[in-house]
Write a structure and sequence with these properties.
With about 210 residues, this protein is an alpha/beta fold. The protein folds into 2 domains: about 170 residues, Ribonuclease E inhibitor RraA/RraA-like (Glucose Oxidase, domain 1), CATH 3.50.30.40; about 25 residues, no CATH class. It is built from 7 helices and 10 strands. The strands form 2 sheets. Strands 1, 2, 3, 4, 5, 6, 9 and 10 form an 8-stranded mixed sheet that branches. Helix 5 links the parallel strand 4 and strand 5. The structure holds oxaloacetate ion. The site of oxaloacetate ion has 10 residues, from helix 4.
Length: about 210
């Protein structure tokens, strides 16, 4: 894992989101299958037509170790973009995580794999495999434009996308935000008088 990705992984998504004014987070309906999942990596983008996951298979074949598969399936929640077999292949090919604006199936078996999946939930129906769809193109996933190679970070609070061109700037802002949050917590924790002053300041009419 390169140093930039490692540094992003050390931060909570909330701080990264704050550094981007909350404007580049995926729809909050896209959640981790387990609370402890936390990933960071480069996006390998996938666009599929509703109900067909051929391009997901194509992406698994193209992936580099550490990639995050980010799938735009137009928010469809009827057909699964992957089950335990497809997710198992992602794990074997050293993909780091799957993020999809749709659903998966074989929930229990996927949880047993301990592979980070972030989705809108589960279904029973599988996808067709007609061979259409694209990889490595700009997509829209969960309301956010994702370009191949963008940084994508997910944890229990959600998923945030950092465009490649502003990675360094956002990393610094997110680190600064964490320091500020820590200083604020220290200033107010266990100090009712300070809290009253803070509330008065924040609610004063100008
Ligand atoms: O093959 C599929 O598309 C979905 C599936 O059932 C699996 O991955 O196990």
């Amino acid at each position: 894992m390169d140093s930039l990705i490692q540094q992003f992984k050390a931060l909570p998504t909330t701080a990264i989101s704050d550094a981007m004014d909350g404007l580049n987070n995926l729809d909050s309906a896209i959640k981790p299958l387990k609370d402890e999942y936390h990933f960071a990596g480069r996006a390998l983008t996938v666009q599929v037509p509703v109900g067909d996951n051929s391009a997901v298979l194509k992406a698994i074949g193209e992936a580099q170790a550490g990639d995050i598969l980010v799938v735009d399936c137009k928010g469809d929640t009827y057909r699964a973009i992957a089950g335990d077999f497809v997710v198992g292949m992602m794990q074997t090919m050293e993909i780091e995580a799957l993020v999809v604006d749709g659903v998966i199936r074989d929930l229990a078996a996927i949880k047993d794999l301990n592979f980070p999946v972030f989705s809108k939930g589960t279904t029973v129906a599988s996808s067709g495999k007609a061979g259409v769809g694209e990889t490595n193109i700009p997509i829209s996933c969960g309301g956010v434009t994702v370009y191949p190679g963008d940084l994508i970070i997910g944890d229990v609070d959600g998923v945030v996308v950092v465009p490649q061109a502003i990675c360094e700037e956002i990393l610094k802002k997110a680190k600064d935000k964490i320091v500020k949050d820590e200083q604020r917590a220290e200033k107010y924790a266990g100090k009712p008088d300070e809290i009253r002053k803070y509330i008065a300041m924040m609610t004063a009419k100008s």
